[in-house]
Design a protein that fits this description.
The chain has about 230 residues and is mainly alpha-helical. The protein has one domain. The chain has eight helices and two strands, in the order αααββααααα. Strands 1-2 form a two-stranded antiparallel ribbon. Helix 1 crosses helix 7, helix 2 packs parallel to helix 5 and helix 4 crosses helix 5. It is globular. It is found in: Membrane. This is TerC family protein. It is a multi-pass membrane protein.
Length: about 230
């Protein structure tokens, strides 16, 4: 354990947590569709699946790296396996985010007082699909940062453990404030657009995305604080 490896480990843990925030938000919003007694279980299963997927993908790291190889070229744009997965995941996020916003606004007046509980298996299936997209992106990012496989394993395990610890608090906080739900869904739409752009080989600087998300969250929190007073 050299100083360089320790710094790489800590950097990768922080990066995995930052990238995992999207996952937590998505899982929190979907788990809210379930009966209260199943929500914690859905968050636990969703993040556990994310951990298992990442560990499996790390075990097949050589196959993962092949996803960066060009599969086809369309209109001068090279598409790899990773690109196709990111584009599909981006469109799925856009679809789900728009659908959730519509349900929470346009359909709000017509919704019954006793909403029909969603299928636990269906919700977990949707979580698993996004886990796969985020996991592949996360692993390829990790490979670009460090060479030691055990560092990647350690970073994944520690980061998912931290996310498991805070997922309940984040989910509860989002559930208490309807405006935060809409804002979180808008964040997911931004992430969806970013994934599609990356799949099309158009790289949007991450700092722009994170700054706009942080600023929007700050303004929203100021409004919540003002209203509560």
């Amino acid at each position: 354990m050299t100083t360089e490896i320790l710094i790489s480990l800590l950097t990768l843990i922080v990066l995995e947590i930052v990238l995992g925030i999207d996952n937590i938000i998505f899982i929190s919003i979907l788990s809210d569709k379930l009966p209260p007694e199943n929500r914690k279980k859905a968050r636990l299963v969703g993040l556990s699946l994310a951990l298992v997927l990442r560990l499996i993908l790390l075990a097949g790291i050589s196959w993962i790296m092949k996803l960066d190889k060009t599969l086809m070229t369309v209109s001068g744009i090279d598409f790899s396996g990773k690109d196709l997965i990111l584009i599909a995941g981006g469109f799925f996020l856009l679809y789900k985010s728009n659908k959730e916003i519509f349900e929470k606004t346009e359909e709000g007046e017509h919704a019954s007082s006793t909403p029909v509980p969603k299928s636990f298996v269906k919700i977990i299936g949707q979580i698993l699909l996004l886990d796969l997209v985020f996991s592949i992106d996360s692993i390829i990012t990790a490979v670009g940062l460090v060479d030691e496989l055990w560092v990647m394993y350690a970073a994944v395990i520690v980061s998912i453990s931290i996310m498991l610890a805070v997922a309940g608090a984040i989910s509860s906080f989002i559930s208490k404030h309807p405006s935060l739900k809409i804002l979180a869904l808008c964040f997911l739409m931004m992430i969806g657009v970013t994934l599609i752009a990356e799949g099309l080989d158009f790289h949007i600087p991450k700092q722009y995305i994170y700054f706009s998300m942080a600023f929007s969250f700050f303004v929203n929190m100021m409004q919540i604080r003002k209203t509560s007073k």
